[in-house]
Amino acid sequence: TSTSTSTTTSTSTTPSCDDGNPCTFDSFIPGTGCVNTPNPCDDGNICTFDFCNNANGQCLHTPTVVSDGNQCTLDTCSAGVVSHIPISCDDNDACTDDGCLPASGCSHTQISCNDGNACTVDTCLPASGCKHTPITCNDNNPCTDDSC
User: pLDDT digit string (tens) for 20-34?
Assistant: First the structure.
């Protein structure tokens, strides 16, 4: 008499769920199947636009555009807060009228120091502003009455 023994071996293999996209987390869930979850690449900073580079799977975080289009503000994003802070256009020149135009930015218009008096020389000094220096009308002739 001969006796034979038969052994059955059962092996379970997990299917490959690789979708070929380096920007997904690939997994197999029994009863569900393959799950390909996008990598959000979220750095937790509201001041960046977060995305995954499909070519290599690298997360990129580019600064969020926060410009309000106004050349008279400094636009920033810090700690999740967008700010549009007015800039100073003061050029520290008393001979200019400083202003700001939203479309073009700072402007510095030369002021007029003309006081309308023909008996003064009108000048402008950047540190102090307009100066009206009287003209000397003395012709050194004692026979004339000098005036301006």
Answer: 999 999 999 999 999
